[in-house]
Amino acid sequence: MFIDTHAHLHFHNLYSQLDDVIQRAAENGIDKIICVGIDIESTKRCIAIVEKYPIVFAAAGIHPHNSKDAPEDFLDEIGKLVNHPKVVAIGETGLDFYRDLSPRPIQIDVFTRQLQLAKKLDLPVIVHNRNADREILNVVESVGHEKGVVHCFSSDVEMAKKVLELGFKISFTGSITFGNKAVMSVIKIVPLEDIMLETDCPFLAPVPKRGKLNEPANLPHIAARIAEIKSESVEKVAAITTENATNFFNLPG
Ligand code: NI
């Protein structure tokens, strides 16, 4: 049994074949999926999805790429959306100083305010970080919210240690199957109790599906890679990461 903690089922290439995508997920042992919004519209679509499929839950947020287009009342909007009983987190939020699709001061402002809201509502937050280690730590420390996950972790061992010290979890995508040595060192030092699994579909399909459209059914390939690096059984990786995600998102058992 697995939980895919980060899936963008709202994107057309998955949304257009969702019955099949959900069925393949179930056939591959995925018993819950968190559908993660990237702006107000996609979050609303995630909520339509959770109302149709019992195994799907949602997160409501503004992705750093979209922060420049966030409506002025975006925080009120997110505040309303998280009232839905199947919305379990705020995200995807964070900072992306690699692609810089929104001006950095706007990214920092929109991230900070979502983190403050998550703290106020005592909700977990899903954080995107690319090339912004220092600023991510600054914002998280200044807000003082400890219930978070850095998703698609791609930073170094030092950053992983700092993230864990803040009380955050770390989640890994199919990118860990691409043969990058640095991420192997990170996986070795992060305790299984602090790890969650995610596909980040439709992006980042793991080997042996690399380059194809990704979907939750591919999650076991990521678990297998973590099991291999940590010399543990896939069953143990599945059990512990599922327990972590269940507790973190406060999902029904
Ligand atoms: Ni994402």
SSE diagram, text form:
Blueprint: E1 2-7, H1 12-15, H2 18-27, E2 30-36, H3 40-52, E3 56-60, H4 74-81, E4 87-96, H5 104-121, E5 125-130, H6 133-143, E6 148-151, H7 157-165, E7 169-172, H8 181-189, E8 195-197, H9 219-230, H10 234-248
Parallel strand pairs: 1-2, 2-3, 3-4, 4-5, 5-6, 6-7, 7-8
The site of nickel (II) ion (NI) has 5 residues, from loops.
Q: Widest sheet: strand order?
A: 1-2-3-4-5-6-7-8
Number of domains: 1
Class by helix and strand content? alpha/beta
Which ligands are bound? nickel (II) ion
Gap between N and C termini, in Å? 12 Å
Mean pLDDT, to the nearest integer, reads 97
Low-pLDDT residue intervals, each spanning 5 or more residues: none
CA-based gyration radius? 17 Å
CATH superfamily: Metal-dependent hydrolases
Overall body shape: globular
DSSP strand (E) fraction?
15-25%
What is the count of β-strands?
8
What is the level 1 CATH name?
Alpha Beta
- The percent of residues in helical segments reads 40-55%
